[in-house]
Amino acid sequence: MLDHLAEPRVDAVRRFFRAESDRELLGCYAWCQCVSAGLLPILGDFEVALRNALHRAFSVYFGCDTWMLTRPNPAAHRSPVAKPLPAAHKMPTYMQQDVQRAADKIRRRKGNVLPDDVVAALPFGFWEQLINSLGHKSHPADLQGAVLSSVFPNAPCVAPDDYGTKDFRERTVALMGQLRDVRNRIGHHDSIWAVPEFDLFGKRGFIPRRPRHTVTSLKLFAERLAWFAGWIDPSIPVYMRRSDHWWSFMSLLDQQALLIYRQTGGRIGSYEQVLRRKANVSPLVLSLRKPSFHKCFY
């Protein structure tokens, strides 16, 4: 596999983890892959909850669930060149294009385009920019407050009037930007080991310099993610922390787990060793027999 990785990337992994052999190098690389795979479903929980909350809020505000789609032009029956009317919610051109591309793909695949299908097809960055653009002067004055108070009813230390402010919007966008950065690192197989820490306002801070820092920083990231999801509904972080995804992800965020990967070179059975080690201190899985353990956690 090393022959098929770019040399600068191989060197970056080797230097950061101080790998002393190709076996250790491949093990560290595999650990990063496994950590990324473990984090993605947790990010997915947040993304699904967020996009659906935004969709509901905009649908209520505009009185229709097609708020992001162009509308039929009544003049079309008289003139075939009549263009569709703009969407109920005004968006920058690049966001309109995102919606149109999503709708076109759905139309080619299914024929009928439903709003829920479009919502599911739009990228994470779309929702970040949707919130960021709420402060534009072309929008109704009450739009931001109405939408964000509906989406984030449990935001900490926020008075009803705060939802319509620039500070609240920018804080939300900054936090989403940190999540998007990690999501993009995973999607592009980038340096998950160097995820920066960030505070409760989305401001970046410490960047890991050693593997032990990575373990700590990624744990903090997961906690920040769950905390932010609680703005939408306190039951979301409860669900996250009770899931197998969370348990197995946290099992990997341990220097001993990384050591296992270094020693095995990331070969088959590495993840099982990590989970079995975790199971030895977790009463939840102590009673599971070997076959059922394998079935449940792979």
Brief descriptors of the model:
298 residues, mainly alpha, 13 helices, disordered C terminus
Measured by DSSP, the beta-strand proportion falls in: under 5%
The residue fraction in helices comes out at 55-70%
Low-confidence stretches: 284-298
Radius of gyration: 23 Å
Q: What is the multimeric organization of the chains shown?
A: single chain
Count of helical regions? 13
**Overall mean confidence score, pLDDT:** 90
Major beta-sheet overview: none
Order of helices and strands: HHHHHHHHHHHHH
Protein name: CAAX protease
Describe it for me?
This is CAAX protease. This protein is mainly α and 298 residues long. 61% of the residues lie in helices and 0% in strands. The protein has a domain at 43-242. The chain is built from 13 helices and no strands. α2 packs antiparallel against α10 and α11 (255-264) runs antiparallel to α12 (270-279). 29% of the residues are buried. Residues 284-298 have low confidence and may be disordered.
Summarize the structure.
The chain is mainly α. The chain has helices at residues 7-17, 22-62, 93-110, 115-121, 124-132, 143-151, 166-187, 211-232, 235-241, 244-252, 255-264, 270-279, 290-297.
Annotate the secondary structure layout.
Elements (H helix, E strand, L loop, with lengths): L6 H11 L4 H41 L30 H18 L4 H7 L2 H9 L10 H9 L14 H22 L23 H22 L2 H7 L2 H9 L2 H10 L5 H10 L10 H8 L1
Helix pairs in contact: 2-6, 2-8, 2-10, 2-11, 5-7, 8-9, 11-12
